[in-house]
From TrEMBL, chain A:
Domain Exoribonuclease phosphorolytic: 32-163, 189-255
Span list, region Disordered: 320-432
Name recorded for this polypeptide: Exosome complex component RRP45
Domain of life of the source: Eukaryota
UniProtKB/TrEMBL annotation, chain B:
Statement: the UniProt record of this protein carries the keyword Nucleotidyltransferase: no
Species name: Seriola lalandi dorsalis
Domain Exoribonuclease phosphorolytic: 21-152, 155-219
Name of this protein: Exosome complex component RRP41
One BP annotation, GO: rRNA catabolic process
UniProtKB/TrEMBL annotation, chain C:
Residues covered by the Exoribonuclease phosphorolytic domain: 46-181, 208-271
Official protein name in the record: Exosome complex component RRP43
Residue ranges that the Swiss-Prot or TrEMBL entry lists as coiled coil: none
SUPFAM superfamilies tied to this protein: Ribonuclease PH domain 2-like (SSF55666), Ribosomal protein S5 domain 2-like (SSF54211)
Family label: Belongs to the RNase PH family.
Organism (species): Lates calcarifer
Keyword Isomerase: no
Domain of life: Eukaryota
Molecular function per GO: mRNA 3'-UTR AU-rich region binding
Biological process, per Gene Ontology: exonucleolytic trimming to generate mature 3'-end of 5.8S rRNA from tricistronic rRNA transcript (SSU-rRNA, 5.8S rRNA, LSU-rRNA); nuclear mRNA surveillance; nuclear polyadenylation-dependent rRNA catabolic process; rRNA catabolic process; TRAMP-dependent tRNA surveillance pathway; U1 snRNA 3'-end processing; U4 snRNA 3'-end processing; U5 snRNA 3'-end processing
GO cellular component, one term: cytoplasmic exosome (RNase complex)
PANTHER family with a match to the protein in the record: EXOSOME COMPLEX COMPONENT RRP43 (PTHR11097:SF9), EXOSOME COMPLEX EXONUCLEASE RIBOSOMAL RNA PROCESSING PROTEIN (PTHR11097)
InterPro entries per record: ExoRNase_PH_dom1 (IPR001247), ExoRNase_PH_dom2 (IPR015847), ExoRNase_PH_dom2_sf (IPR036345), Exosome_comp_Rrp42_subfam (IPR050590), PNPase/RNase_PH_dom_sf (IPR027408), Ribosomal_Su5_D2-typ_SF (IPR020568), Rrp43 (IPR033196)
Length: 432, 245, 292
C-alpha cells in the first residue's frame, strides 16, 4: 500500500512549530521519548517501546561450520524485518531501500564495532562454531526505527544465554538447559545509536524524531556510541550538508543520551534477573493479563496551559452577543414550516410555487443571521406541530412516504418540500 | 599488534607513504563515446570507471517523476575480477545497494537538480580493480563524469577515506590498512564551503579523536579537489584545441 | 566527423547531413553504400582501428582491454581451484560470461542479463569448446580430485557495434596473458599447496578470431558494423577461423538469405583478419615480456 502523502499545511505547521522550538508531543529539542524495555519468557527475547514505536528482538544460536577465512571465530547474523504490521507503507517480502539501510546500519553498528567476543563462540576450530542470529521485528512504526532496533538488539544479546558445550576428543556434546545452566555471551561494550534529524537545511536539529517529524526532515545523522564515549559508527543520510561543528555538537549530545540509555538497560536487565531468581513467572505470557504489553495506553501529554483562562475570558468578552431576534418561520400550509435561507426549489411542483416566493423573502431576511440557530428552531417547531409525523430531520432522502389516510396526497409533498428545504439549507450553508 | 605494522616508527606506512600523503591520482575524462559524460580514475591501485547518461526523460516508472527536480539514479557495481577472491554477485547484494544509495545521496546534494524538472540523470560506477577506498574513488570519478556531461554542480565533490592508528590519522587507506581493523572514516566534501555531503564511520574510535580525524579528512579532500581541478582544466584545454578556436 | 572519401553530387551543408542522418538513417547509409564507402570514411571491407592493452588489472590472473573503434571490451580471468565434474575427471573447465551493463549504452537497462548478453555468452562458450583454444587436460592438477576453473568475465564498457569480435580478441589476449601459480598436492593431508611466486603461462593451442559482417538490402556486405549500421542491417553474420585456415564457427542468426559465393568472400576476409589480429596479439605480448 502506498503511504498517504503528507499535506502541505501539515508540513508547514510542523516546520513552523520546530522553528519556534515546539514539538508535537511537547518534548524539548534533545529529549527522548519514554523508553520501556520488557523481556519475554525465553532468554534473548526483548521488547522495546520508544514512545509508540515498538520493536521486538529475538536472539537464537546454532552450531555451524565456520567461514573459511576465519576458522576460529563465530558468526553473527543480523536481520531486520519491516513487517506490514508496523506501517501500511511496508510491503511483505520486498527489500525496500529503507530495509537495506536499516540492515546495513545495524550490521555496521554491532558487527564492525566488535561488541561481542566472536572467538569465545568457537567450539572446534575450523569445524564447529556458534552462529548467533539476531532477528529484529518492527511492530509499530512511529519514527526512529534505528534507535529502537539498536537498543532492542543489544539488550537481547545481553539477555541471551547459549547452551553449554563440552568437547571430548572429537565428540561435541551440547547440554540442554535442564542439564547445565546456559552461559551468557561475552559482550565487550554496548553500542547504542542516537538519531538526529535536521530541518531547514541544517538550521534546526531534533533528537529522536517521531514519524511526522521524520516525514518533513531534510536528513538524518546516526551516531552509535557506547558509554565509554567511544564512537562505533557514524552515518549521515538524506542528502544534507553538514558542518564540522554540527557533527561535534551532535556527538557530545549523543554521549549524554547513550549513558542514560545504558543505565536504563542495566536496570531492566537487573529487574528481570531478580524476577527470574524469585521464581515468578515472567515474560510475555505473564504480562498480558496485567495489560503491561498489549494495552497501548495514551500517555498524558503535556499541553501548554499557561495563560489559557485569561485568553479565554478575553475572547468571550470581546465576542458579539448572540442575536436577540430570530426570524419567525413561515407556515404556508398547515404542517409545513420554513425558516432560513434556501435556494430556489427546482422541483417545479405547483404547491411549492407560493412557498418559493416566501422562501426567497425569508432567505433575504435570514442571510444576515446565523443559519444554524434558525434551523434548529425550525426543527423544534415542526416536531411540536406534526405529532403523528415521524421526523427524519437530517435525512437527504428524496421521498419519505408517510401513510396517513387523510393527508395521503399532502404527506409526500410535505416531506418532499421539507427535505428539499433541508437540501436547500445545506446547499446554502455550503455556498456560504 | 596491527598498528605497529601499519605505521612504522619513522612514520612510514606499508607502501612507504607518510601519514598524510595521498596515493597517486590519475584521471581521464571523456573516455567513452556512447555516454554523455565519462571518466576513468586511478587512485593508487584502485581503478574506477564512471559513466553519466542524462538528463533524459524518465525511464521505467513514470510515477517516480518529480515535478520540480531531476531524479538521480546511481548504480555501483564491482567487476567480478576486481578483488583478490572472485566476487560471485556483482550487483544486488546489500553492500552494493548501500553504496549506490550513498552515492545517490551525495550527488543529490551536490547536483543542481532544480534545473531539470521531470527528468532523470543516471550515474553508473564500476570498480575495475579494488585496493581500498572504494567509495571515495567512486565519488571522485563520478564528479569528473558529471562535469564531463556538462551537468551543473554546486562544487566539486571530493571524497577520501582516513584511518586512525597510534593517535595519528592516516589519509587515503589502502586495502591492507582497511582490513587491518583500523577505524576508518569516509567523508565526501564540497571543498569551497566546507560542507560535508556524506559522513560514514565504522569501528571504535574515542570521541575525543573525532575532531582530529574529521579535520584530517577535510584536508585530504581539499588535496584531492586540487588534483581534480587540474584534470578538468587540462581536459578542457585539450578539447578546445581539438574543436579549434 | 563526416569528412569522407566519397564525393556527393550536390554540395550540402554539414548540418543538413546531420538532420538527414537522424530523420532518414537508412537512406543516409544507402547513399554512401552506393559509392562503395561508409559514413565514417571506411571501405566496405575495412576494419576500424583495433587497440589492445594487456595486463592492466593486477587483481585478475590475466586481463586484456580491447578497443575496436569506439567499442571497448575488458576481459578479466580469475583462476580458482575446484573439484572436476564426475563425467570428466581428468579435465578442468572454462566458464565464460559476457556482461553488457547499462553503462555501456543507454539501450541496456539495469537488472538481470538481457538476451543479447546471454546469447553472446553462449556464443563465446561454443567458440571455446569447438576451437579447443586450451586443452582442458592442462587444467587438471590431480585426476578426479583437483582442477583449475577459469572464470572469464568479459565486460563491455562502450557499445558501438561488433561486440562479439572484440570479446573474442579480448579473451584470447587475456588467456595468453594468464599466469597460473604452481600447485602441489600434499599426499598425506590431501590439501593443495599453492606457491604464488612461481607462475607459468597457459598453453594456447589455437588462435580463433571472429569477424562480423552485416548485410544491407540483401546484397551489400559490410565488415565490422557500428551500432547504427547493426540496427539498420537486414542480417548479421559472424565467422570464426584460426591460423590453419580452419573454420570453427559460422553464426548467422536469421535475417535475409546469402548466396554461397558471398559466403566464400566472407570466409576469405575472415582469414585475412585472423592473421592481422594474431600478429597484433603476439607483438603486444612480446613487448610486455621484453619490458619485464
Amino acid at each position: 500500500m502506498k503511504d498517504t502523502p503528507l499535506a502541505n499545511c501539515e508540513r508547514d505547521f510542523l516546520l513552523k512549530a520546530i522553528e519556534e522550538k515546539k514539538r508535537l508531543d511537547g518534548r524539548q529539542t534533545y529529549d527522548y521519548r519514554k523508553i520501556k524495555i520488557t523481556f519475554g519468557t525465553d532468554y534473548g527475547c526483548c521488547f522495546v517501546d520508544l514512545g509508540r514505536t515498538r520493536v521486538m528482538a529475538q536472539v537464537s544460536c546454532e552450531l555451524v561450520a565456520p567461514k573459511e577465512n576465519r576458522p576460529n571465530e563465530g558468526i553473527m547474523f543480523f536481520n531486520i524485518e519491516l513487517s506490514p504490521m508496523a506501517s501500511p507503507a511496508f510491503e511483505q517480502g520486498r527489500q525496500s531501500e529503507l530495509s537495506v539501510k536499516l540492515n546495513r546500519q545495524l550490521e555496521r553498528c554491532l558487527r564492525n564495532s566488535k561488541c561481542i567476543d566472536t572467538e569465545s563462540l568457537c567450539v572446534v576450530s575450523g569445524e564447529k562454531v556458534w552462529q548467533i542470529r539476531v532477528d529484529v521485528h518492527m511492530l509499530n512504526h512511529d519514527g526512529n526505527l534505528m534507535d529502537a532496533a539498536s537498543i532492542a538488539a543489544i539488550t537481547a544479546l545481553c539477555h541471551f544465554r547459549r547452551p553449554d558445550v563440552a568437547i571430548q576428543g572429537d565428540e561435541v556434546t551440547v547440554f540442554s538447559p535442564e542439564e547445565r545452566d546456559p552461559i551468557p555471551l561475552s559482550i565487550y561494550h554496548m553500542p547504542i545509536s542516537v538519531s538526529f534529524s535536521f530541518f531547514q537545511q541544517g538550521t534546526y536539529l531534533l533528537v529522536d524524531p517521531c514519524e511526522r517529524e521524520e516525514r518533513v526532515m531534510d536528513g538524518l545523522l546516526m551516531i552509535a556510541m557506547n558509554k565509554h564515549r567511544e564512537i562505533c559508527s557514524i552515518q549521515s543520510s538524506g542528502g544534507i550538508m553538514l558542518l564540522k561543528d554540527q557533527v561535534m555538537r551532535c556527538s557530545k549530545i549523543a554521549s549524554v543520551k547513550v549513558s542514560e540509555i545504558t543505565e536504563l538497560i542495566g536496570k531492566a536487565l537487573e529487574n528481570d534477573k531478580k524476577a527470574r531468581k524469585a521464581g515468578g513467572r515472567c515474560g510475555f505470557a505473564e504480562s498480558i493479563p496485567q495489560e503491561r504489553i498489549t494495552a497501548l495506553k495514551m500517555e498524558e501529554s503535556p499541553v501548554e496551559m499557561m495563560d489559557v483562562t485569561e485568553r479565554a475570558n478575553d475572547i468571550v468578552q470581546k465576542a458579539e452577543a448572540p442575536p436577540q431576534t430570530v426570524p419567525s418561520p413561515v407556515v404556508p400550509v398547515p404542517g409545513v414550516g420554513q425558516v432560513g435561507q434556501g435556494l430556489q426549489n427546482t422541483w417545479g411542483l405547483e404547491d411549492d410555487d407560493e412557498e418559493e416566493e416566501e422562501e426567497e423573502e425569508n432567505g433575504n431576511r435570514g442571510e444576515e443571521q446565523e443559519g444554524k440557530a434558525s434551523k434548529m428552531e425550525k426543527y423544534e417547531k415542526e416536531e411540536s406541530r406534526g405529532g403523528d409525523v415521524v421526523e427524519i430531520s437530517d435525512s437527504e432522502e428524496e421521498e419519505v412516504v408517510i401513510l396517513h389516510p387523510e393527508t395521503s396526497d399532502k404527506a409526500p409533498v410535505n416531506t418532499g418540500s421539507r427535505s428539499s428545504s433541508h437540501q436547500k439549507g445545506a446547499a446554502k450553508s455550503k455556498k456560504k | 599488534m596491527a598498528g605497529l605494522e601499519l605505521l612504522s616508527d619513522q612514520g612510514y606506512r606499508l607502501d612507504g607513504r607518510k601519514a598524510t600523503e595521498l596515493r597517486k591520482v590519475q584521471a581521464r575524462m571523456g573516455v567513452f563515446a556512447q555516454a554523455d559524460g565519462s571518466a576513468y580514475l586511478e587512485q593508487g591501485n584502485t581503478k574506477a570507471l564512471a559513466v553519466v547518461y542524462g538528463p533524459h526523460e524518465m525511464r521505467g516508472s513514470r510515477s517516480r517523476t518529480l515535478h520540480d527536480r531531476a531524479v538521480i539514479n546511481c548504480q555501483y557495481s564491482m567487476a567480478t575480477f576486481s578483488t583478490a577472491e572472485r566476487k560471485r554477485r556483482p550487483h544486488g547484494d546489500r553492500k552494493s545497494t548501500e553504496m549506490s544509495l550513498h552515492l545517490k545521496q551525495t550527488f543529490e546534494a551536490a547536483v543542481m537538480t532544480q534545473l531539470y524538472p521531470r527528468s532523470q540523470i543516471d550515474i553508473y560506477v564500476k570498480i575495475l580493480q579494488s585496493d581500498g577506498g572504494n567509495y571515495s574513488v567512486c565519488v571522485n570519478a563520478a564528479t569528473l563524469a558529471v562535469i564531463d556531461a556538462g551537468i551543473p554542480m554546486r562544487d566539486y565533490v571530493c571524497a577520501c577515506t582516513v584511518g586512525f592508528v597510534d593517535e595519528t590519522p592516516l589519509a587515503d587507506l589502502c586495502y591492507a590498512e582497511e582490513s587491518g581493523g583500523v577505524s576508518s572514516l569516509a567523508l565526501a566534501l564540497l571543498p569551497r564551503g566546507g560542507q560535508i555531503a556524506l559522513l560514514q564511520m565504522d569501528a571504535r574510535l574515542h570521541q575525543d579523536h573525532l575532531e582530529t580525524l574529521i579535520e584530517a579528512a577535510m584536508t585530504a579532500c581539499k588535496g584531492v579537489s586540487k588534483v581534480l581541478d587540474e584534470v578538468v582544466r587540462q581536459h578542457l584545454q585539450e578539447v578546445s584545441v581539438l574543436t579549434g578556436e | 566527423m563526416i569528412g569522407s572519401v566519397c564525393v556527393t553530387q550536390s554540395p550540402v551543408s554539414p548540418s543538413f547531413l546531420l538532420h538527414f542522418r537522424t530523420a532518414e538513417p537508412l537512406e543516409y547509409h544507402r547513399s554512401f553504400l552506393k559509392e562503395n564507402c561508409r559514413p565514417d570514411g571506411r571501405e566496405l571491407s575495412e576494419f576500424r582501428t583495433t587497440t589492445l592493452n594487456i595486463g592492466s588489472i593486477s587483481t585478475a590472473d590475466g586481463s586484456a582491454l580491447v578497443k575496436v573503434g569506439n567499442t571497448t571490451v575488458i576481459c578479466g580471468i580469475k583462476a580458482e581451484l575446484a573439484n572436476p565434474t564426475v563425467e570428466a575427471p581428468g579435465k578442468g573447465y572454462i566458464v565464460p560470461n559476457v556482461d553488457l551493463p547499462p553503462l555501456c549504452s543507454s539501450r541496456f537497462r539495469p537488472g538481470p542479463p538481457g538476451e543479447q548478453a546471454q546469447a553472446a555468452s553462449q556464443f563465446i562458450a561454443d567458440v571455446i569448446e569447438s576451437s579447443e583454444v586450451i586443452q582442458t587436460e592442462d587444467l587438471c592438477i590431480e585426476r578426479g580430485k583437483l582442477c583449475w576453473v577459469l572464470y572469464c568475465d568479459m565486460m563491455c564498457l562502450d557499445y558501438d557495434g561488433n561486440v562479439l569480435d572484440a570479446c573474442v580478441v579480448a579473451l584470447l589476449a587475456a588467456l595468453k596473458n594468464t599466469q597460473l601459480p604452481e600447485v602441489t598436492v600434499n599426499t598425506e593431508t590431501c590439501t593443495p599447496g599453492v606457491t604464488l611466486e612461481k607462475r607459468h603461462g597457459l598453453r594456447i593451442n589455437k588462435h580463433p578470431v571472429a569477424t562480423s559482417f552485416c548485410i544491407f538490402d540483401d546484397s551489400i556486405l559490410i565488415v565490422d558494423p557500428t551500432a547504427e549500421e547493426e540496427s539498420l542491417a537486414t542480417a548479421q553474420l559472424t565467422v570464426v577461423t584460426d591460423e590453419e585456415d580452419r573454420l570453427y564457427s559460422l553464426h548467422k542468426p536469421g535475417g535475409t538469405s546469402l548466396s554461397g559465393q558471398k559466403l566464400q568472400e566472407c570466409i576469405s576476409r575472415a582469414t585475412a583478419r585472423q592473421r592481422e589480429i594474431q600478429k597484433l596479439i603476439n607483438k603486444v605480448i612480446h613487448s610486455v615480456k621484453t619490458a619485464q
